[in-house]
Amino acid sequence: MDIGGKYAGTVAGTMNLMGNLAGVSSSTFGGYLLQSTGGNWNLFVSVLAFVYLGGALCWPFIDPVTRLDDSAPMRVTTGRA
Question: How far apart (Å, rounded) are the C-alpha atoms in residues 60 and 41?
Answer without folding.
Answer: 30
